[in-house]
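Observation: inputs received (chain + glycyl-adenosine-5'-phosphate).
Thought: call the complex predictor directly.
Action: predict_structure
Action Input:
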Amino acid sequence: MSTVSLEDITNLAKRRGFVFQASDIYGGIAGFWDYGPLGVELVNNLKQEWWRAMVREHDNVFGVDGAIIQSPRLWEASGHVAGFTDPLVDCKNCGARLRADHLADTDSTDLSELKELLKDKACPVCGKHTLTEPRKYNMMMKTWVGPVEDESSVAYLRPETAGSIFTNYENVRETMRAKLPFGIAQIGKAFRNEISPRDFIFRVRELEQMEMQYFIKPEMQETAYAQWREFAWNFLVERLGISKENLQWHEHDEKERAHYAAAAHDIYFRFPQGFKELWGTHNRTDFDLSAHQRGSGKDLQYFDDETRQKFTPYVIESSVGVGRMLMAVLANAFAEDELHGEKRLVLKLKPSLAPYKAAVSPLLKNKPELVSRAQEVYAQLKRELGAVMWDDNGNIGKRYRRQDEIGTPLCVTIDFQTLEDGTVTIRDRDTAEQRRVATRELTTDLLT
Ligand code: GAP
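Observation:
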């Protein structure tokens, strides 16, 4: 069970180079974060694992990588220009802008309900009873395309990656000669002008999503919805090693659902600030393809060879944020225990996710014969395991602590015995047990 605080995660992330505030030297910019050397390795491992499970392991799921800026007509048709909103209240006294649903501590975004809940509320910033009535606020970020900055050149940074999946539905179906059911998957950045970005990388304004739209015959709704809910749960537990006690289901009621969804189930993770949304599965019905048919005038119907009938496919969507997944993985892996009477902090990451699979050290760095043998082992391990770190700083105890904190599963030490019999000491991150193995046994088998 995760009992880690937000401060623990934030401090570790900064101290060890997972996540830095964007524009740190200028005091940061709210809702934007940079990944450091370890963070980018972890992010890449998460994306790779998802791509493998989602695309490579499903013969009927194809990948795309669409542009961040698409025709604004796409977002008009999809309903985002009119409906991609959060409820907002302003304070007339101090000017604070606040998420009305957060202030009312509810999942509902229904304006009349929020009005009722907030009627006696004071502004949490200045304490005055000067809040406006809740209103809808559009979260899409705008820019201009081309040299003229007027209404005709307005474009939006995509608020979800799904948009270009829908517009490529026909391209992919045709080029891959795909038959229903089939999916289109995408990993990429999305932008939301969140009113109150918060909780470290949990709610940000520039995010990355991993999404898949599964195009189906309408009668498959129930089974496909169940299939992709199960996929998300199993991925988190089996592929990322997230403990089941840290996960729970949350079904959206009507007031909570996005404008395109007929049903939505989130997997909530026990984040330091409580159980919150990590991964959504949505039944988007034929909402999007129908909307894009109307908006574009193109026929996006599917012709079923067997029944000889045409219809608009339904869509089941699987959608998860990379940053939230990283935060969940860090919180889940974060552990403090005691070794030989000394407290230690250890990230119990699955080896497949660990930024470095092993750290290689010569026992003494002032003995050239040990250093050169250690460099040979280092080169061998880089070939064998990929991301491996050379670590000859400080004494061996300190190296182990440092590697434990960043989740390195194995520490490999080259000592005088290595020069005699070719064996090295390997030390396991989780058990702290040490044993000697021959250098030829330093393979991926050690990382299971
Ligand atoms: N295409 C569907 C869609 O975008 P969503 O529930 O708005 O649905 C999907 O977002 C996932 O994207 C969420 O479950 C979450 O993991 C991530 N996400 C959404 N907004 C986010 C934000 N402001 N910051 C970080 N992650 C976010």
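Thought: report the result.
Final Answer: Residues 228 and 318 are 7 Å apart (CA to CA). The mean pLDDT is 95.
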